[in-house]
Write a structure and sequence with these properties.
Rossmann fold, two-stranded antiparallel sheet, six-stranded parallel sheet, alpha/beta, 286 residues
Length: 286
Amino acid sequence: MRCRANPESINRVSESKDESSNQANAEERAARSDAPVRAIVFDLFDTLVDLYIEKLPHIEYRGDLIPASARALHAALPHRSGIDFDSFASTLAEVDREFQKSHYKEGIELSSDTRFAELCDRLGVSDAKLPGIMAHVHMGLLREQVAMPLHHLGLLGSLSNRVQLGLCSNFSHTVTALTILEDYGLHAHLDAIVVSEEVGIRKPRTEIFEAVLDELAVAPEEVLHVGNSLGADVAGAAALGIRSVWITRRVREPESRLEAHEGAAPDYQIDDLVDLERILDETKTA
């Protein structure tokens, strides 16, 4: 069951690509929908703010285009290290491949500092401050690609007068996440902020959702979780019995994505966070 926003209202849709699964979950969804909403929890990127990662400058390397940030990170190395860019880039790729298997696929977060500390170790560069410097360079380039829809600040102010608000984000650098929230004035409207670097766990694992529920002191059925990822946000929330709102503002071909998705379907589908006001209007709040 999912809902799509339109100019008139939020319409509940009973169709599902898997009718038997939809029937099996009907009672559970009905029970959740009857519970009052006491909190809304947001993902950060492409939800509260937009991260235009595609706008990062790229350079040609061995016939491929790679982010220009790789050059900036290489430039952070001490000149006396004598490490050429090819060695740096191939080692970074090797580190990322290994951490993908050992951490990300298991839902374990890896801090940016830890990632760059491993890189420096493999490059044979001994400088305790260098991993932090590289993380600062990398995150600075990412911050330059962040923007927020103008109406989001006022919307959060309005929503915060009705329910508690929280953040639950997969991100490897908590300081940068907090800085972005401060940059756009969002921090003051959030009653709980949980970033995966802090808890060491990434969505869709339930532990990170449980952390934000604990901070808000609410039960799963009393929460709406809003995010752009069907896997991390929608399926992750559903695993705990949290109602999900799939925000498709930055999702390409959302209908095709939903059709291919094998996990739980979103309870609501919207393309603008402003539709949360109407969802609350049509839902009991505490």
